[in-house]
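Sample entry (167 residues):
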Amino acid sequence: MLRLLGGICVLVFASYGGFYMSGRLKSRRDFLRSMAESLTYIESEIEFGHYELKDIFMRIDKASAVYDFFKKCAEGLNKSGIRCVWERSIAECGETIPLKNEDIDVLLQLGAQIGMSDVAGQKTAIRRAVTHLDAFASTADEEYARLGKTYRSCGVLLGIFFLIIVI
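Predicted structure, serialized as tokens:
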């Protein structure tokens, strides 16, 4: 009886591991897509709205995967400059969402230019970042389609394998 209970625990933990790895792929994909959409919104607000960055960041949709990122940026603007706040928010975001180095590099380059130049310079930087993020999101979507199901299946099958061995 105890072996069966242990085997079931191993099955549950292995399945959880597979679904967790699949979820990490999905969260990266969702973050990159939401970031690209939000940056497009920010670009139009900078060009036509003439609002401060803090106000623009607070207007990002609460249902978006990047809402917390921009909320941290908006709150931090009271204490320090945009570049410092942007880098800190990316670092905090990188702890929860499995961003790759190339994703972080594009976001850091954008953070160095946003709020620091004229409207045309900011628009150019945002468009460049959106182009890169869209490409990365497409790659992440392909990875999720290819590997997401594999991770889930492997987790469950590994759990069943250990359950059979234990029993």
